[in-house]
């Protein structure tokens, strides 16, 4: 089954967020994935406003975890956490 990695991000300072965006994008190089949605939400239906949302699809849960746990993406996370508030999760698709 495919796996979706879902992010919702509140970004107080867009300029400070740019290093994460660059490192996060670079961490995906050579990986088998698709961007299904993002980055700007069309409408927030419930909850706090988010400046960015992303849904990435990987062929398997193992490939999604491999990317998320990679040294390249862990470095990107270290750039994101001080400058944003993020929720993220991985979920397998049903079909």
Topology:
Blueprint: E1 3-10, H1 14-27, E2 34-37, E3 52-58, H2 61-69, H3 71-80, E4 85-92
Antiparallel strand pairs: 1-3, 1-4, 2-3
Helix pairs in contact: 1-3
Number of discrete helical segments:
3
| CATH class group | Alpha Beta
Distance between the termini: 6 Å
The radius of gyration computed from the alpha-carbon positions, rounded to a whole number of angstroms, is: 13 Å
How are strands sequenced across the largest beta sheet? 2-3-1-4
How do the SSEs run, as a string of H and E? Answer: EHEEHHE
Shape: globular
Number of domains: 1
Structural class: alpha+beta
Q: If classified by CATH, what would the architecture be?
A: 2-Layer Sandwich
Count of distinct strands: 4
Content of β-strand: 25-35%
What percent of residues adopt helix (DSSP H or I)?
Answer: 25-40%
Average pLDDT metric:
96
Spans where pLDDT lies below 50 across 5 or more residues: none
Tell me the major beta sheet. 4 strands, antiparallel
Description of the molecule:
The protein has helices at residues 14-27, 61-69, 71-80, and strands at residues 3-10, 34-37, 52-58, 85-92. The protein is an alpha+beta fold. It has one domain: Alpha-Beta Plaits, CATH 3.30.70.100. A four-stranded antiparallel beta sheet has the order 2-3-1-4.
Characteristics of this structure?
4-stranded antiparallel beta sheet, alpha+beta, globular, 3 helices, Alpha-Beta Plaits, 95 residues, 28% strand
